[in-house]
Structure formats: C-alpha cells, structure tokens
Amino acid sequence: MSAEDDLRALADLCGVLPAYYDLNGGLHVAGPDTLRAMVAASGIDVSNDAAVAEALGALRHQIHDRWFPEEVIVEAGQGAPLQFGLGAVWHLHSDDADRVVAEGAPADYITLPPLAAGVYQMTASASGRTEHVTVIAAPRRLPDVGSVTGRDRHWGVNCALYGLRGDRGLGLGDYADLGHMAEIAGRRGASFVGINPIHTMGHSNVAAISPYSPSHRGFLNTTHIALDAIPGLEGAVDATPFAEVARAETVQYQAHKRAHNAALDTLFTRFQTEGAAEAVAAFDRYADTSDAALATFARFEALSEGLGDDWRAWPGEVPDPPQDRVRFHIWLQWVAEAQLAAAQDRARRAGMPLGLYLDLAVGPRRDGAEAWCERDAIAQGVSIGAPPDHLGPEGQNWDLAAFAPRKLRAQRYAPLRRILAQTMRHAGIIRIDHVLGLNRSFWVPDDGSPGAYMRQPFEALLAIIKIEAARHNCIVIGEDLGLVPDGFRETMHDAGFYGYSVLQYERGADDHLRDPSYGPAQVLSCFATHDTPTVAGFATARDVAWWERLGWIDADAAADLRARRAGDVAAWGDADGFAAQVTQRLAHAGAALVTVQLDDVLGLEEAQNLPGTVDEHPNWRRKYAPTLDTLEHHAPLHATAATMAAAGRGHSDKGYSDDH
C-alpha cells in the first residue's frame, strides 16, 4: 500500500467520510491534507508517513484483537441474548452508581436480563483475559406528545428571552420574565413557550452574545438570573446601575453584564451573611452533593476571572483559584437552576402541559469552558461548520468545538449525557439544533484545508438521547434542515423524534408555499425561526433588502427574489391578510406541534438574526416594545390564541376565553 492508501485506510477507521455531495450535486473528495487534519483531531499522530503506518497498524490490531465488541445497544426492559460469550464470567455494573446489577456464569453466549434505561459497563473474563464492554439500554422510542400530555395537538409561542421587558427595568430578560411570559401564554391556551439556548456564555466574557455560541452547554446562563428573586434574599435590587441599559432600544450586553456581575457579587456576600437559613442549607446540600463536573466548571470560571476568558492563552500549569470564587460560581448555578425550575413551575400552574421548550446548541465556543473541561473528549484543530447549502451558499465555519467520536465513546458518552440532562431537567420539550450532526458532523480544519464529514456513532447517540428523554419525560425535536442523508429522517421518525418544519422553506407542486394541513403529524411546524425573516419580513422581502445592501446579491437577483416572494404572498391571499393566513394555516396544520414567534404576533419586520453577519445587522439585540404587563392584554396575542383554540389546539377542552 502507498502512504496515501495508508492515510485513507486510517481515516476510514476513524470515521472520516471520503467524499460528499453538496446541495447542487457536486462531488467533493477529501484530499490528503483534509484527511490528516481530521484524523489528527481525533488524537492520532499523523505527522509523517511512518506515524500514519504505525497508527494504522495499532488501530487495526486494537479492533481485530478484541474478543468481544466494544459496545452493545439493547432495548431497556427486555432480556437480550448477545452474540458472544466464549465461556466468560461476567459482571454488569451501573455507570451512575457503580454497583453490580447482573452477573453470569461461563456460557457460550451471554444473555442480559431486562435492564432499566441507562449506561452500563460489562466486565467479561475468559481464559485469563478480561475485556470491558459498554452496554447501553435504551427505550425503543422517545416520549411522544400524546402519551406525555394526553392530547395530540398543541401550540406554543417562541420568543427571545433577552428581549422580554419585565417591570423591573434591568435591560435584559431574565428567568422571572420567562416564568411571567409562560403564565401569559398559558392562560391563553398555549401548551409551551420556547426560547433560544440558555447555556452559560462565560461569567467573565462580556463580548459573546449569540446564544448559539455558548461557553458550556452543561450549565446555565447566569446573566439571566433575576436579581430580585435570589432564594433566601428578600427585597428589590437597586436598579440605578441599569438605568441607561434599560432605556436603550437594543440590548447593551457589555454594560448590562458588568453591572449584573457586580450585583451578583454583592448578593453572594449578602446571601452568606443574611440569607434565610433554609436557603443557605439548601445551597450547602447542593454544593456538597454536586458532581465533579460542576466543580471543574466552577474552577474554570474562577480561573477565567484572573487569567482571561480564553483558556487557550492560559499558562501550561494553571494556579489553584481562590476557593471562595469557586464556591461563588457553584452558587450562581444553584440560583439559575432554582429560577429556571420556578419558571417551569409557573408554566405548569398556568395550565401548560409541556411548559418550557428549550434549545440545545450544536456545540460550544472553542475558547470556552466546555472545550476546557471536556478536553479529553473534544476534537482538536477543527471547528464544526456546514458545507454550502441554502442557509449558507458559501459554506459556514461556526468556530465551535466538536466531540471526537472515539474519545466520546471511550468516556461512555458521559459529557453528552450531562449536557442532555441539564437541558431536559426543567423542560417539557427540547430542540436539538442541527440534529444532522448525530449522523455525520462537518468539520472545518484550522490549517485551511477543505472541510469534510466525520461519521458519528449514530445508533449510540440516539440511544443516549432516548435514555435521558425517558428519564425526564421530555419531547425531543430534531432541527433537520440542510443536506439530509438518505433515510435519515425515516430513522429519526422511527426513534420518536419530531421533525422541524419551517413553512417558508417548503413548497408544493406549484412551487408556492406548501399547505401544511397535508403535512405529517410527527413534526413541530412554524413559519419562521430566529434565522429567517419574520412573517412581516417575508412579505416585504426584508431579508432580500439586507442581502442587497450587504452586496451578497445584485439588483437583478434581488428583483427576482422580490417577485417570487410577492407570488408566495399572493398565493395565500393579499399582503394585508398574509399574517392572519399564516396563523390560520398553522392552526390547521397536520403537525402535532405548531409554534408562532412572538415577533410575528407583534408584527415585527426585522429578524432576530441574519446568518452570515455579526455587527452589520442587530443580531440578538432587539428588545420587544411591549412590556410583559402589556402583553397580558395584547389583542393580537388573544386573536392568535382564539384561532388556535378554534382549531382544537388549546390545552383545555374548554378552549380559549378571556377568563383563562
């Protein structure tokens, strides 16, 4: 074999796909530079041809020398005869409590008893040799809407948490505002309220603002802590430092975060000296019983206060941070967790059968906490991105860290399990952003070589999601836009995932917007998302105006797009009635779940985010004009609720009324 043959064979064993087809059917073959970068990202030395040959031989030996498989997946609650045994004595340990749950005497084949959903480690010994096998016991399907709620048709409202205006005037929506918004929507008959990701952005980082570029997905964004709702502390908070940011028309992230962080420091000191005894005791229990992952994360946050928020610039050996600062960051997570739980409780008490609909970002920033805390599972030297598609014709580099499949499997998927548990713990629904990444993930190498796809342990990842969803009785939506592999949606459907149907992307045989009443049931249907034009923006081609202004398209292309857009609007009625027609069609859609954006209820024209821009467009900065108190009596919201109730989507058989 030639050196390039060795490299391609090694890349294949590591899961690198040798080629892919783009949106237009063009074939892209991964070259040697791309293959080296992708394999190196998995932690394998490919610095020269000899290293490649040595790594290939070692990996082949590792694979072929095993007597038993590295991993097996079985259905929870069902006995499972395995296709191996070889007279081994075996013990099965639970991964969370490290206790023996099953064992067996030597036999030709091992048969597992019915297992509770979870991850286990089997130790099997035969002929003086011992091997370890990861056993994943997962439910056959994810929870479904009917079994969780007792109803098959629901609607909800999606909003930007940062843009909500409460009555406390601190310039950024918080967890208490989220609870208030859930009460408003719940009293109108909505079954859920959805928001963008609320993963931590990093306490010391005042520059990062996109919720889809978090620091760590396993912990909460403490900037959304309601300062006047700290457990164990009474009284209002001095709003003077927030006066200017509260008056601004857009969110002033940096100024708000500095004032908010200072207030949290003061409140932590007060909590330790004046906090109610019951709350202090609850926090002590939380801190004493928390797992090592929280301690590691809090250590990162404390270190970042002195060393900077980009760990890649830290010295090789970092000092021990002050323990009082580590405890402060544990306290912040305790407070955020308590407030998010309170928001979900308010949603449920308002009648919502699902409550919070939370979002799981595709990956963390490469300079942030997750990339540092989970270094042993993270691919190095690459970023998650996307090849050219309708969302990004030039392809995209998201500068996000990726889990390396071989490294993640070696940890029995523990980092992913923690992230899923955090996202599902206080949610009735979660949406997994770019769920295509469960099957294959597009990596963009740092060295400038073209990107390629890395194959993922698809069946194992599905099983892990099923386990956590069953544990939290949570519906799971997979955002499946983009280049979809053959059979992917069918597999996800069979596993119980709800698809993600964005109506402005879907067209019928006449090339106009498709009527959603004939669409599938196992989806969440919406007209717009945070990355698309709003209903009003679609009708006026506001996005096209931005593309033309930024020089992405010329005047002729813009004119063609505007004409196409006008035809879409005319097919559903006239421009004045388009928004009402969208609501009507969503209400009568075949989808079990439909959602409307608060932006569309308010008739806003500007989108939350314009993909491909950072500062050119006011991404993630727009505040809603009405206060939450005003929304209580907002006529368009009431009209939306009435339309949904008339279509049988209210969470009560009584339907919508002003007396909710």
Characterise the protein shown here.
With 660 residues, the protein is an alpha/beta fold. Helix content is 37%, strand content 17%. The chain contains 22 helices and 23 strands. It has an 8-stranded parallel sheet. The longest helix has 27 residues, at 323-349. It is globular, with a radius of gyration of 26 Å. It starts with a helix and ends in a 14-residue tail after the last helix.
Percent of residues in helical segments?
25-40%
Biggest sheet, spatial arrangement of strands: 20-17-14-11-10-23-22-21
Note poorly predicted spans.
653-660
Q: Quaternary state, please?
A: single chain
**Main beta-sheet strand count, sense and barrel state:** 8 strands, parallel
**What is the total tally of β strands?**
23
The DSSP helix count reads 22
Kindly provide the radius of gyration, computed on alpha-carbon positions and rounded to a whole number of angstroms: 26 Å
Backbone shape: globular
Beta-strand portion reads 15-25%
Terminal CA distance reads 74 Å
Rounded average pLDDT: 94
Class by helix and strand content? alpha/beta
